């Protein structure tokens, strides 16, 4: 068994956090077995959250998208970097103000915590994913950060996938703002374990009895490890069994896909 970062392998798994893209779906197509895996969690009353670093969609919109692929996931079981960012800001500066570069997933999450969205001397500039980055909006963000607004970004992913190829994502646009201002953002999403801890609190779970499943060593596995969880890497997405060897840390287990856990959700390491 791989190194687990000091977590007791004999501790029962009582709850699950799982990444979405590359684990449950791949470009709007169901990964075979993902529906049976989630159904088994639900049947056994095992709390879980589906995580995504993408901040574009609200949980309700994501629920509809996932249902279209054949996955019926309750809205309250979806945790996005936008929700994690809103939780962080609500804790740091309740009732604050923000200038947002992003879409409905992020603006809705900030509205829901009582934030006022403004371009007039905001407490924060909050950068998230968007399909159409506006040069004008980025310019406004640069000027506000330069004047002293605190710079927050939902996630550090430099690119995202599309049918036509790579798309620049939050990390790339953040780099543009940083280059112009000399100010680095605070990233809330994976691999920041803060997102994992806020997810654990959301379902009232403890890290020692929670398993993190992901398809990327550099975000999912490291974030789970740093939050004190055991981790499973699936090779149905980005990382491969070979690429695991390139990192100084290891997942607790490597499997082909979540289909390998069907029938074993209560004992994922004995499967």
- Give the helix level as a range of percent: 25-40%
In the residues, how many domains can be counted? Answer: 2
CATH class assignment of the largest domain: Alpha Beta
Instruction: Report the total helices.
Output: 8
**Rounded radius of gyration (Å):** 18 Å
Binding site for substrate: 190
Cofactor: Mg(2+)
Binding site for Mg(2+): 19, 21, 215
Active site: 19 (nucleophile), 21 (proton donor)
Can you put this structure into words, describing what you see?
A six-stranded parallel β-sheet has the order 5-4-1-13-14-15, sandwiched between helices. 32% of the residues lie in helices and 19% in strands. It is globular, with a radius of gyration of 18 Å. Helix 3 (81-92) packs parallel to helix 4, helix 3 crosses helix 7 (193-202) and helix 5 crosses helix 6 (170-181). Strand 13, helix 8 (217-226) and strand 14 form a beta-alpha-beta unit. It folds into two domains: 15-53 and 190-261, 3-Layer(aba) Sandwich (Rossmann fold); 94-187, HAD superfamily/HAD-like (Rossmann fold), CATH 3.40.50.1000. Mean pLDDT is 94; it is low at 1-6. The chain is an alpha/beta fold and 271 residues long. The longest helix has 12 residues, at 81-92. The chain has eight helices and 15 strands. The active site is at residues 19, 21. This is HAD family hydrolase.
Q: Notable features of this structure?
A:
alpha/beta; Rossmann fold; 2 domains; six-stranded parallel sheet; five-stranded parallel sheet; 8 helices; 15 strands; globular; disordered N terminus; magnesium
